[in-house]
Structure formats: structure tokens, C-alpha cells
Specification:
The chain is α/β, with parallel strands linked by helices. The chain starts with 7 loop residues before the first strand and ends with a helix. The radius of gyration is 18 Å and the shape is globular. The longest helix is centred in the C-terminal third of the chain and has 37 residues. It is 46% helix and 15% strand. It has a single domain, classed as 2-enoyl-CoA Hydratase, Chain A, domain 1 (Alpha-Beta Complex).
């Protein structure tokens, strides 16, 4: 693509925005009024957009971010609590088993611009690596809400910050600041908010500049090495998640906890 060529873009009113420029695809979760919470429309659209862009010959790397002020506030609890939908399906259109974006052939860089909570935290963890705005905050509130992870959080979080810190985050539901996330090894870089996307795109440009088959093979190699030790972990998490939904999932109880989770999150973000 010539340097002066306009970026290729998706529909401006979509729940997932995307554009491709100079080999880099930028994907934006676009439900800012709901802090980009994952409802059925957003999650299914996100899965398709990532898969379609990953398959394009004019894309060498992908950047995933959220429309300000949030990266992703997790599953849409209002939709989760909608008893007119089949139990466990509302807001859960992303596949489980090997994460929401597998398989991929190109790196996916998470540009975390605000809060990444519960399912949104898992979306971030399923990126190959993360860049955080100074405004980024991370929290695993699965246990606080009364649900369990199904997109690899127990695997990826342990690999990122260690087992003891991962357990602390998951059983307390406390927030982790951008600086703490950097110090704990969860994110690779913390940058000023206005520099987040340019910085993430510069990393993506470095990927694009490399030998593409070698990058694809490198990603596959990391997956193969990891799978020698974590296949059972994926199976355990999927089985426990399915069992929890079958035995313990209560839409009314999830809805009742929503206000408390939102209030507690606001208090912690303003501490």
C-alpha cells in the first residue's frame, strides 16, 4: 500500500471498528456507552473480525484496543442476567477451549487504554503481549460476580505474574494499576494515554517488517512449546467452567451482584 493511500476501514457504526494501514490492522471494541462490555453482538463480531483480518494477505500484525474510556468491562451482566436467553449463552459468543482468538497466524498486540475486567481481562491476556496506557487497570472479578473463567485466565495469568500473584488477583477481585501490571510482568510497556496507539502500532510495524513466514512459525513454535505442559490445564478449566454453569449459574443472583461490583470498581479506581 502506498504511504499516501487511505486506510481501509470497516463500517463506522459497527460494534467492532477496524482499519488496515501499512500492514497493521487496528481493531477497536466500540460500545463505549457500556464500557465495551461483551454482549452477544460484540463478542461474536470480535471473533469474526480478528479471524478475517488474520487471514488477509495485506495484514502482518494486529492491534486490539477499546473505545475510551475502557478497554473492556467484561461480560455484559445485564445480558447475562436476561432469563429469556439460554443459560450461560448470553454475552458468551466467543469460543472456549483454546481462547477467543485461536488459531491465529499473526501477532495480536493488546493496547489496553482503560479498565480490563473479568472477561475483558481474559481478552487482554489472550493477546500475544500488552501495552498499557497509564489509565489502564486490570481486575479479575469472576469470583466476586459468581462466575468462572473459560478463556484461559488461569493459564495466562499464572504465566504472566506467577501462581501466587494470580491467585491473589482472582480471589480478591482487587484492581491492579498499570504500573503494578508492568512491575509484575503482565504488560510489556506503560505509556502516556495519548501515545498508546502510536506506540502499539510502532511495535506492530516492527513485526510487519520481519519475514512473515518466520513470524507465523515463531508463534506456532511458542504454542507448541506451551502445549507440552498446559493441555491438561485447558481441559480442566473448560470442564470446571461447564460444570459451574450447569450446577451454580443463577442469572438473578448475577444481576443482584452487578451493582455492588460496579460500585466497588468505581471506588477502587478513584483511590
Amino acid at each position: 500500500m502506498p504511504d499516501d493511500a487511505p486506510a481501509l476501514q470497516g463500517p463506522p457504526d459497527d460494534v467492532v471498528l477496524w482499519e488496515v494501514a501499512d500492514g497493521v490492522a487496528t481493531i477497536t471494541l466500540n460500545r463505549p456507552e457500556a464500557r465495551n462490555a461483551l454482549n452477544g453482538a460484540l463478542s461474536s463480531r470480535l471473533y469474526r473480525v480478528v479471524a478475517e483480518l488474520d487471514a488477509r494477505d495485506d495484514v502482518g500484525a494486529l492491534v486490539l484496543t477499546g473505545a475510551d474510556p475502557a478497554f473492556c468491562a467484561g461480560a455484559d451482566l445485564k445480558e447475562l442476567a436476561d432469563t429469556s436467553k439460554p443459560t450461560g449463552e448470553a454475552g458468551m459468543a466467543l469460543p472456549t477451549g483454546r481462547g477467543p482468538f485461536a488459531p491465529r497466524t499473526k501477532p495480536l498486540i493488546g493496547a489496553v487504554n482503560g479498565v480490563a475486567i473479568t472477561g475483558g481481562f481474559e481478552i487482554a491476556l489472550n493477546c500475544d503481549f500488552l501495552v498499557a496506557s497509564e489509565r489502564a487497570r486490570f481486575a479479575d472479578t469472576h469470583a466476586r460476580v459468581g462466575i468462572l473463567p473459560g478463556w484461559g485466565l488461569t493459564l495466562h495469568l499464572c504465566a504472566s505474574v506467577g501462581v501466587r500473584r494470580a491467585r491473589e488477583l482472582s480471589v480478591t477481585g482487587n484492581f491492579l494499576s498499570a504500573q503494578q501490571a508492568y512491575e509484575w510482568g503482565l504488560v510489556n510497556h506503560v505509556v502516556p494515554h495519548d501515545e498508546l496507539l502510536p506506540f502499539a502500532r510502532s511495535l506492530a510495524a516492527a513485526v510487519v517488517d520481519n519475514n512473515r513466514p518466520a513470524v507465523t512459525e515463531m508463534l506456532a513454535l511458542y504454542d507448541r512449546v506451551a502445549s507440552t505442559t498446559v493441555d491438561e490445564a485447558w481441559a480442566i478449566e473448560a470442564a470446571v467452567n461447564a460444570d459451574w454453569i450447569r450446577r451454580m449459574y443463577d442469572p438473578a443472583a448475577v444481576a443482584a451482584r452487578q451493582a455492588g461490583v460496579v460500585a466497588r470498581g468505581r471506588d477502587q479506581l478513584h483511590d
